[in-house]
C-alpha cells in the first residue's frame, strides 16, 4: 500500500479504451477551458466554485477556477495533466454508466499543452500538505509542497502562447466573454445546488449562491423571469422531465434560453429545444420562444455521451419518443396553470407580437371610460345583427352557462361589452376584471373546431349558389396544388375551365350566410400565402379561415352571445391565446385596480 497522501485514484486508460473514446480538440477557446475546469470541479463534488477571468488590452490573460471539492493527492496531481489519465472510468464498459461530466482524461493535458498552467490542490483530510505543479507548453517546470485549503485551484495563463494560429482565431474580448458567460449559464442551471461566482477583473458577472433551479434562474435572469416560471414534473415512458418553463407571457426571440440537460449533463440540442417550443403550440406567436430549464432523465442505456470530444452533444436512442414526451411534459405543465396574462404582461406580449400595433399603457384606459363606452349590450345589438350575418353566428345556447369543459379556465360572468370589441367579465365568485378580445377568442373557438372537425371529417357546407372565382393565370396555376389542402379544411372547389373555379362548399365555421365577396377574398389570401405543401399549409389555411369566420372587433353582441362566446372559449384546448399566439384575454387584478384608485 502507498504511504498516506501518495496513493491516488487516477489511472492511465488502456490503449483499447483510448481508441474507442471520441477524441479531438477540446480547447477551442477560453470558454472551453472554463467549461472543462468547472466540470472537473463539479466531478470533484464541489459545493462552491469560483471562476476568475482577467483580461488586459482586449484579450483574456488568465483563467482561474477554484473549488472546495475532493482535491488530489500529490501523486494524482502529477498524473492529472498526463493525457488519458483519469479517475472517472477504468475501461470502455464504464462509459455506458458514466455519471461524471468528464471521462476522457484529456482536458488538463490539452490545456497544459497550450498555456502556462498551475495546479494547486490538497485532498481533504488525507493530505496534510498541498501540492503545486506548473506546466509550460506541456512541460513540467515546477513541483512543490505548499500550504493550501482542501480543494483545487487551476490557473491558466497565456492561453495559446505557443500556438499562434489558434490565438489568431480568438475573437474579440466581448465575444469570448459572451461564450464564457453562456457556458457558465448552462453549467449553473444544470447544477443549481452549487454556489457559483464568476468574476471578470474582479467585477462579479454571475453570482448564484446555490439553491433550486428557480433560485438559479432568479440570479441569472432576474425577478421578472423567475416570477413567470411554472414547474414541470413529468414521468413518461422513456423520460422523466423536471424543471421550470416560462409562462407564454414571458418569451424570447430565439431558443437560446432553453437550457436542457440530459442526465445532469448540459447539452446543446436543437431538436430537444424545438420539442420544448412545440409544447407551447399556439400559446406563443410563431416567432417567439420560451425560457426553460429542464433536466431530462433517461435510462443510461438510451444515452451515448461519447459522441463529441467537448461532450456537449449526446446521442439519444428513441429520440422521437423522447421529444414527444418533452413536448407533452411542457404542455401538461402549462395546462395545469392559469395562463391568463396579467395586465403588464399582456401589454408586453402585444408589443412583442409582430401582428398587432403596440398599445400604450393599457391600465389607464380604464381609469375614466368616455361616457357610454361601457354598454349594457342587450338592446342596440339586435338592430345591428345584420352586420354579423356573414360571420359565424354566435348562437345562443340555452344551457351555455352549465356546460363543463374548460379544464383550466374558470367560469366567467359577463359584465358588459366595451367599444363593441371587448367582453368585460369577471370570474364567478372572483373579484378580478377580465377583458376578453372577442375576435381573438372567437378565432380560437373556430380554429379548435376546424381541428376537431378535421379529425372526424371536414365540416363542410354546400353553398346554394356556387361562388365563381376568376383567377389570374398565376393564381390559377396554384389552385390544383392547393385543392387537397383546401379539401381537408372543408372547401370543395371544382375547375370550370378557362381559369375559372367554382367553390361549391366552404367550411361550416364561416357561418351560414356566406358572402361571396368574403369567400373570394379569403381564397385569394390563401392563394397568395405561399405556404409550402404539407401540414403547415393546412394549418395556415385553418388559421385564415378561423380569422375570416370570427366575429370582428366593432361588432355589438348581446349578453347571451357574450356568454356563449366565453363558454365556447372555455371548452377550447388553449383558451388564453388565439391561433396566432395573441392573448385572448387580459386580467386586471383587483389589487391593481385598488392601487390605481389609491385604495391601499
Ligand atoms: P477527466 O475529467 O476526463 O477525467 P481531466 O484531464 O479533465 O480528465 O482531469 C484528469 C483527472 O484529474 C480527473 O480524472 C480527476 O481525477 C483529476 N482532477 C481534475 N480536476 C480536478 C479537481 N478540480 N478536483 C479534483 N480532481 C481533479
Ligand atoms: Mg475533465
Question: What can you see in these coordinates?
Answer:
The protein is an alpha+beta fold and 600 residues long. The chain has 3 domains: 11-207, Histidine kinase-like ATPase, C-terminal domain (Heat Shock Protein 90, 2-Layer Sandwich), CATH 3.30.565.10; 215-335, Ribosomal Protein S5, domain 2, CATH 3.30.230.10; 340-352 and 371-600, MutL, C-terminal domain, dimerisation subdomain (formyl-coa transferase, domain 3, 2-Layer Sandwich). Helices cover 34% and strands 24% of the residues. It is built from 19 helices and 25 strands. An 8-stranded mixed β-sheet has the order 7-6-5-8-3-2-9-10. Strands 11-12-15-13-14 form a 5-stranded mixed β-sheet, sandwiched between helices. Strands 18-19-20-21-25 form a 5-stranded antiparallel β-sheet. A hairpin with a 2-residue loop joins strand 23 (492-497) and strand 24 (500-507). Helix 9 packs parallel to helix 10 and helix 14 (438-456) crosses helix 17 (535-549). The longest helix has 19 residues, at 438-456. Mean pLDDT is 81; it is low at 1-5 and 353-407. The structure holds adenosine-5'-diphosphate and magnesium ion (MG). Magnesium ion binds at residues 36, 39-40, 102, 107. The site of adenosine-5'-diphosphate has 25 residues, from helix 2, strand 4 and helix 4.
Strand content: 15-25%
Overall pLDDT = 81
| Level-2 CATH architecture of the largest domain | 2-Layer Sandwich
- Reported by name, the CATH topology of the largest domain is formyl-coa transferase, domain 3
Distance between the termini: 74 Å
Widest β-sheet, arrangement of strands: 7-6-5-8-3-2-9-10
Give start-end ranges of low-pLDDT stretches.
Answer: 1-5, 353-407
Question: In total, how many beta strands?
Answer: 25
Chemical compounds bound to the protein: adenosine-5'-diphosphate, magnesium ion
Number of helices in the DSSP assignment: 19
Amino acid at each position: 500500500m502507498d504511504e498516506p497522501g501518495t496513493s491516488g485514484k487516477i489511472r492511465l486508460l488502456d490503449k483499447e479504451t483510448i481508441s474507442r473514446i471520441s477524441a479531438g480538440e477540446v480547447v477551442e477557446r477560453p470558454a472551453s477551458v472554463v467549461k472543462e475546469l468547472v466540470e472537473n470541479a463539479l466531478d470533484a463534488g464541489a459545493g462552491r466554485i469560483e471562476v476568475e477571468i482577467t483580461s488586459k488590452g482586449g484579450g483574456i490573460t488568465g483563467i482561474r477556477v477554484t473549488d472546495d471539492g475532493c482535491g488530489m493527492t500529490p501523486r494524482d496531481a502529477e498524473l492529472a495533466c498526463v493525457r488519458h489519465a483519469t479517475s472517472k472510468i477504468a475501461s470502455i464498459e464504464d462509459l455506458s454508466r458514466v455519471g461524471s461530466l468528464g471521462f476522457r482524461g484529456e482536458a488538463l493535458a490539452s490545456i497544459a499543452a497550450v498555456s502556462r498552467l498551475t495546479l494547486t490542490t490538497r485532498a481533504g483530510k488525507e493530505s496534510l500538505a498541498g501540492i503545486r505543479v506548473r506546466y509550460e507548453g506541456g512541460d513540467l517546470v515546477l513541483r512543490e509542497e505548499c500550504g493550501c485549503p482542501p480543494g483545487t485551484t487551476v490557473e491558466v495563463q497565456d492561453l495559446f502562447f505557443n500556438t499562434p494560429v489558434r490565438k489568431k482565431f480568438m475573437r474579440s474580448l466581448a465575444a469570448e466573454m459572451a461564450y464564457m458567460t453562456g457556458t457558465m449559464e448552462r453549467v449553473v442551471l444544470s447544477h443549481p445546488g452549487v454556489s457559483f461566482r464568476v468574476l471578470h477583473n474582479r467585477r462579479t458577472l454571475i453570482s448564484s449562491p446555490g439553491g433550486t433551479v428557480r433560485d438559479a434562474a432568479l440570479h441569472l435572469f432576474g425577478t421578472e423571469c423567475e416570477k413567470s416560471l411554472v414547474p414541470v414534473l413529468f414521468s413518461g415512458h422513456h423520460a422523466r422531465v423536471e424543471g421550470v418553463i416560462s409562462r407564454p407571457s414571458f418569451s424570447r426571440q430565439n431558443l437560446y434560453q432553453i437550457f436542457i440537460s440530459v442526465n445532469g449533463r448540459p447539452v446543446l440540442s436543437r431538436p430537444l429545444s424545438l420539442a420544448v417550443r412545440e409544447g407551447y403550440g399556439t400559446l406563443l406567436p410563431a416567432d417567439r420562444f420560451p425560457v426553460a430549464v429542464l433536466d431530462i432523465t433517461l435510462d443510461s442505456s438510451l444515452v451515448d455521451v461519447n459522441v463529441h470530444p467537448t461532450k456537449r452533444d449526446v446521442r439519444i436512442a428513441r429520440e422521437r419518443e423522447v421529444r414527444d414526451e418533452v413536448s407533452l411534459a411542457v404542455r401538461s405543465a402549462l395546462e395545469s396553470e392559469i395562463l391568463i396574462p396579467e395586465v403588464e404582461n399582456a401589454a408586453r406580449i402585444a408589443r412583442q407580437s409582430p401582428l398587432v400595433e403596440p398599445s400604450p399603457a393599457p391600465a389607464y384606459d380604464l381609469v375614466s371610460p368616455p361616457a357610454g363606452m361601457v354598454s349594457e349590450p342587450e338592446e342596440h345589438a339586435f338592430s345591428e345583427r345584420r352586420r354579423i350575418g356573414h360571420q359565424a353566428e354566435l348562437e345562443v345556447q340555452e344551457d351555455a352557462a352549465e356546460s363543463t369543459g374548460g379544464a383550466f379556465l374558470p367560469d366567467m360572468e359577463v359584465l358588459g361589452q366595451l367599444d363593441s370589441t371587448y367582453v368585460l367579465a369577471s370570474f364567478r365568485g372572483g373579484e378580478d376584471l377580465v377583458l376578453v378580445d372577442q375576435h381573438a377568442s372567437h378565432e380560437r373557438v373556430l380554429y379548435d373546431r376546424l381541428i376537431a372537425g378535421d379529425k372526424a371529417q371536414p365540416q363542410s357546407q354546400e353553398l346554394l349558389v356556387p361562388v365563381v372565382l376568376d383567377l389570374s393565370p398565376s393564381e390559377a396555376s396554384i389552385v390544383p396544388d392547393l385543392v387537397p389542402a383546401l379539401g381537408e379544411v372543408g372547401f370543395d372547389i371544382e375547375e370550370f375551365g378557362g381559369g375559372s373555379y367554382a367553390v361549391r362548399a366552404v367550411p361550416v365555421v364561416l357561418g351560414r350566410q356566406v358572402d361571396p365577396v368574403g369567400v373570394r377574398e379569403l381564397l385569394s389570401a390563401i392563394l397568395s400565402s405561399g405556404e409550402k405543401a404539407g401540414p403547415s399549409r393546412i394549418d395556415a389555411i385553418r388559421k385564415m379561415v378561423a380569422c375570416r369566420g370570427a366575429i370582428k372587433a366593432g361588432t355589438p353582441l348581446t349578453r347571451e352571445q357574450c356568454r356563449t362566446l366565453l363558454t365556447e372559449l372555455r371548452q377550447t384546448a388553449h383558451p388564453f391565446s388565439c391561433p396566432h399566439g395573441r392573448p385572448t384575454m387580459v386580467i386586471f387584478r383587483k389589487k391593481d385596480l385598488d392601487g390605481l384608485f389609491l385604495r391601499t
